[in-house]
Amino acid sequence: MKKIFAVMLALLLAVSVSACSKEEPQTPPEPQTQQGGDPQPQSDPQPEPEPEPEPEPEPDPAPAPEVHDFGETVMTDMDGDGTEEEITAEADGEGYVLRIGGKEIRKEYSVMLIPRFALVDIDASDGCREIIISEEGPSDDHASDFYAYINGEIIFMNEGANRTKPVPADWEWEDDTIESLYDGMTIRGNGVVENTTRAAILQTWFFRSRYALMPDHRLIFAPELFETSHRVELKRSLTAYAENFTDAATLELPAGSGTLVGTDNIQWVELKMDSGERGWLLIEDYNNIVSGGEVLSAPDVMDGLSYAD
Ligand SMILES: [Ca+2]
Ligand SMILES: [Ca+2]
User: Fold this and answer.
1) How remote is the CA of residue 114 from the centroid of ligand 2, in Å?
2) Would you give the distance in Å from CA 109 to the centre of its chain?
3) pLDDT at position 98, please?
4) Range of the domain at 198
5) Average per-residue pLDDT in the chain?
6) What is the per-residue pLDDT for 305?
7) In this structure, which residues have their CB less than 5 angstroms from ion ligand 1?
8) Helix, strand, coil % (nearest 5) of the chain?
9) How confident is the model over 136-163, as pLDDT tens digits?
10) One domain, residues 138 and 243
11) Distance (Å, rounded) from C-alpha 41 to C-alpha 156?
12) Contacts of 38 (CB under 8 A, 6+ apart)
């Protein structure tokens, strides 16, 4: 039942732009109730129309992670196309095999494999769900493999061009909940996996890190801000984010002069206006700015950018 509800919720949450499915969701998203716990489908036939003219873009809540043992068969819609896929996983040699929708992927070698898989929702605004399989590693080398099911194929999300690191993850598996070791992993449904990563230098220690979900549904390590000081002129106002998360509050940067003060070199650029406003611009496809739902070519709205031939 919980599973069915989770699937329905995932469908409801699948908004129009889905990297996973070309199909529009059949049902328009219901307005979120304030008490997010109770899955009552049709409570009031005539609900009082809420006078909420300004729908502040609340982040969609992601379904809670579900943990399943190897050997269990789970049916869920992994790619948001409205059809459930059968999911199984089992130990195989020194690794494991994961099967989704009749396809399978093998990992040849794991150390202290945890024979369970977690079903999570990294980005509540797409119809996809993701699977995590973790291992304890030889010595505090906890690691997790992330998988998605896109266009009928299983995608290993940790891997790809220009991906800087695998996704080491610290999971503690307890009953039906996932709690991570150390400061832990957080999946809030905003397209970012927050995690604890073991540092590569000096000693055995750990730092908080973030992995961002890319349009090709791979995860990349999101480094902290790199400082810049590039002067630009905004030709028009733009909607920016207060922080470099898509669920952060938005704000308006007015037209005028400002300085690009930093970038994560992935998808965020921070702009500080001379008039004092400061915000993060979400960048797509190299130099498109996503501003309040509009996708704007940066040179169209910003003077002072430099492009080498
Ligand atoms: Ca499906
Ligand atoms: Ca999703």
Assistant:
1) 24
2) 27
3) 98
4) 2-23+60-222
5) 76
6) 94
7) 77, 79, 81, 83
8) 5, 40, 55
9) 777 766 778 889 999 999 999 876 433 3
10) no
11) 35
12) none
